[in-house]
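Human: My hope is that you can spare some time for a protein that puzzles me. I am handing you a single protein, as its sequence and its fold in token form. Could you go through the record with me and say what the backbone is doing? Take your time, and here it is.
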Amino acid sequence: MPRNPKRPCCYGGCPNLTGSKSGYCEKHEKPMQRYYERFARGYRQHERYGSVWRKIRDRHLAREPRCEMCKEHGRFVAATLVHHIKPLGDGGRYDESNLMSLCISCHEKIHRRSRER
């Protein structure tokens, strides 16, 4: 199967070509990911979501293995993510009442709506 043609790196002034999904060449991909993690997300993900969160997430997915939003529409889709209904940054907690199992597309829909506000 033929590959897509390489594109210029998204980093300003970089002459390198890349086939990466991120749009950055090998030289700029890691620094831009660090920039995103630190400044665009507003927190350090690894500090907030450690081993305790992974245990809670795994327990919740075992209890509720289907996407809750898809289930409301009569679809049966496996959940891969656990979403905080009230974000941790806004005072949300790891309580079961504040968690919901979602598939990737439903999780993206929720976050797209919150960014548009």
In short: The chain has a mean pLDDT of 84.
